[in-house]
Design goal:
The protein is of the alpha/beta class. It is built from six helices and eight strands, in the order H-E-E-E-H-E-H-E-H-E-E-H-E-H. The chain is globular, with a radius of gyration of 19 Å.
């Protein structure tokens, strides 16, 4: 058999295997998410290219860009985005290649260039939060705030001297972004960073995609954790003039 045919066969097998593995470990949104992908009298939900936009009918002058967690379908964060939009904040939920924000760290740049807001805040869950921090590290003058959900910057992305407002929310029982890791990387964030630990909260409850491998079970339910997350984000946005 021609050696190139053998190579093509091997590559095809590897490609199919990779897709199968990706589909196996990818976290899909739960059915309840569909309720938050439908417009109502307060929020219009717009699907536009690689974005799901949650546009409030009466909007405030802060735009929010959201980076999803690694291998998590972005729609899993639709309830959180929708609830923020109901309070007047337009949210741009980004779809990432292979659901990995590390493959499109600069997705926020295009959004900022195309939409007009006086202030921009970027937030992300887990890997999405780390990549949001990376984006700020590379573009220090484009954003006003950063919200880290069960996340922290990489050691190479020291934001401690940046003029940026930061909110860090994590769960007490998080098995991935543990309390110890949040504490370890505090030196990479500004001194006035606000830290919120959700008692009984975990990693998976930041989205609606089921239980994530490596996490710990929470002692509060997801709706309780979401209410705390939304409350803290809204307080943060109000503190920066939103």
């Amino acid at each position: 058999m021609n050696k190139w045919i053998v190579v093509l066969i091997i590559m095809s097998i590897l490609g199919i295997s990779s897709i199968a593995i990706f589909n196996y470990i990818n976290y899909e949104p739960e059915n309840i998410v569909q309720n938050y992908l439908i417009s109502n009298n307060k929020v219009e939900v717009i699907k536009e290219g690689n974005l799901v936009i949650f546009e409030p009918k009466i909007k405030k002058d802060i735009g929010i860009i959201f980076y999803p967690g690694g291998l998590v379908s972005p729609e899993a964060y639709a309830p959180l985005c929708f609830n923020l939009a109901e309070e007047g904040y337009e949210v741009f939920l980004t779809k990432m290649p292979l659901n990995l924000a590390v493959l499109k760290i600069n997705a926020a740049k295009k959004i900022i260039n195309e939409y007009n807001f006086n202030k921009w805040v970027i937030m992300g869950h887990s890997l999405g939060g780390a990549m949001a921090a990376k984006f700020i590290y590379d573009h220090p003058n484009l954003l006003f705030g950063l919200v880290l959900l069960a996340s922290y910057p990489a050691e190479s992305n020291d934001l401690s001297n940046y003029n940026i407002k930061v909110l860090s929310i994590h769960g007490e029982l998080d098995g991935l972004a543990t309390k110890e890791k949040i504490e370890k990387y505090k030196d990479l964030l500004p001194n006035d960073t606000k830290y919120v630990m959700i008692n009984g909260g975990n990693h998976s409850n930041f989205g609606y995609y089921g239980f994530q491998k490596g996490d710990n079970k929470s002692t509060i339910n997801r709706d309780e954790q979401q209410k705390i997350i939304i409350k803290e984000i809204l307080l943060f946005l109000e503190s920066i003039g939103g």
